[in-house]
Amino acid sequence: MWDTIKKDEIWTGLITKVGNGRGLYALDSNVQPLFDEQRNIAEFIAPAGNQRLNQ
């Protein structure tokens, strides 16, 4: 993931999280860099993903 977003590309994939009931769920996610005025990476954003599966 980091190699992709540091190359000014959007990373797309699944991120697994633990829910309130201790169950696992996966989110479809996109992570992308945001740039400052000099085109340096200033921060990263990851808009809220969609729940993909419950386990």
Give structural notes.
It is a single chain. The protein has 55 residues and is mostly beta strands. The protein has a single domain, classed as Beta-Lactamase (2-Layer Sandwich), CATH 3.30.450. 9% of the residues lie in helices and 55% in strands. The chain has one helix at 2-6, and strands at residues 11-18, 24-35, 41-45, 50-54. Strands 1, 2, 3 and 4 form a 4-stranded antiparallel beta sheet that branches. Strand 1 and strand 2 (24-35) form a beta hairpin.
Structure in a nutshell:
With 55 residues, this protein is mainly β. Helices cover 9% and strands 55% of the residues.
Give the helices and strands, then pairings.
Layout (H helix, E strand, L loop, with lengths): L1 H5 L4 E8 L5 E12 L5 E5 L4 E5 L1
Report the CATH topology name.
Beta-Lactamase
Structural class: mainly beta
Number of strands: 4
How many independent structural domains? Answer: 1
Using only CA atoms, what is the Rg? 14 Å
- CATH fourth-tier homologous superfamily: PAS domain
Strand percent estimate: over 45%
CATH top level assignment: Alpha Beta
Count of DSSP-assigned helices = 1
Mean pLDDT: 83
